[in-house]
Amino acid sequence: MKVYIYSKQHAHGIVVIIDNLIAAFMRRGIQCERIESLDGCTSEDIIIPYGVMESNELLNAGLPAKICIPADAITLGYLNKIKFYLKINHICNYDFFYSIYAYLKYKPKEKRMIESFDTNILVSPVDIEYFKRHIDPSDNKYKYVTNGIGLGETAEKTSSSNFRIGILSPWQSRQIFEESNWFIKEYFKKYAQTHPNVQLIVAGRGPRCKAFEGMQNVKVLGEVSSLKDFFSNIDVMISSNPKGCGILNRVLDSFSYKVPVLGHEASFSGFPESEGCYYSFKDYKSFCSTMDYMMSNREDMKVRADKAYEYIVKYHNWERNYDNLVEYLLKTL
């Protein structure tokens, strides 16, 4: 038996999932490799597509539709962002209009994928419930398998007289830029006017982070050589992504480095049973009150960071989760 994982995507979060799935098959003595083309594939091959487009391409090729990995309900993410930008009146931006376009583009393709494949693997129960409500309510259509994360070192903090909050993001695309820009423009800029001791650290590769250079209380680190270099320079990680689907890898990274997380409530939709592991806000008022609370309660920040670390040890072990997934798949293939 040989298994092929079909994906054209090279984002780090996707590559890590595919690599760990391949490793899990190999631990069972089953050959598995990633392919980026269906050329030469036949109905005798075992092919697991990753993503909506790849799943539809496999269907177009007339190949067997047994198992696919949507991972996220991407239309749920686009829909949530549209609603959020409307709510805060942050609509004159590229991501708002792109989200509308992408929602309309992917909705029929996502529906076709869910209906056509026997098993759809997803990383969040919220995404599964979304598909059950809108496409197919059958339990046996879905398999919930959460992402893993490597355990990070405890980052020794650099000294600072400021209370430092940080955003780490790939700053290449206009869509991803807006997922953080709304927070900096609508929340932090206003908050900084009355809190001179709070500093925002902006890090990540890509030129768009330079847009924040010169802003009050903002320091742009740009690309960092390691996650440790980022986490050692902040007190709290900010998660501003409002998409509310899948799992946010930056939240997992923060949990693994024992750095407290403050995020939009949608950031934690993929973390069931994680109450008490993070701080959240739903509007500017709750952001301000939570920030004030954290600055006055450093011990509680440590308690939550330690609890978050225990949470990922329990639920986000790559080898354990993916060995169990392969056991399940072998009964299906």
Write the layout of secondary structure elements.
Elements: E1 2-6, H1 12-27, E2 31-35, E3 46-49, H2 52-60, E4 67-71, H3 74-87, H4 94-116, E5 119-122, H5 125-134, E6 142-144, E7 163-168, H6 174-192, E8 198-203, E9 218-222, H7 227-231, E10 236-239, H8 249-256, E11 261-264, E12 279-281, H9 284-296, H10 298-315, H11 318-330
Parallel strand pairs: 1-2, 1-3, 4-5, 5-6, 7-8, 7-10, 8-9, 10-11, 11-12
Helix pairs in contact: 1-11, 2-4, 3-4, 4-6, 8-10
What does this molecule look like?
With 333 residues, this protein is an alpha/beta fold. The protein folds into 2 domains: 2-147 and 317-330, Rossmann fold; 163-315, Rossmann fold. The chain has 11 helices and 12 strands. The protein has helices at 12-27, 52-60, 74-87, 94-116, 125-134, 174-192, 227-231, 249-256, 284-296, 298-315, 318-330; strands at 2-6, 31-35, 46-49, 67-71, 119-122, 142-144, 163-168, 198-203, 218-222, 236-239, 261-264, 279-281. The strands form 3 sheets. Strands 9-8-7-10-11-12 form a 6-stranded parallel β-sheet, with helices on both faces. The protein has a 3-stranded parallel β-sheet with strand order 2-1-3. Helix 1 (12-27) crosses helix 11 (318-330), helix 3 packs antiparallel against helix 4 (94-116) and helix 8 crosses helix 10 (298-315). The longest helix is centred in the N-terminal third of the chain and has 23 residues, at 94-116.
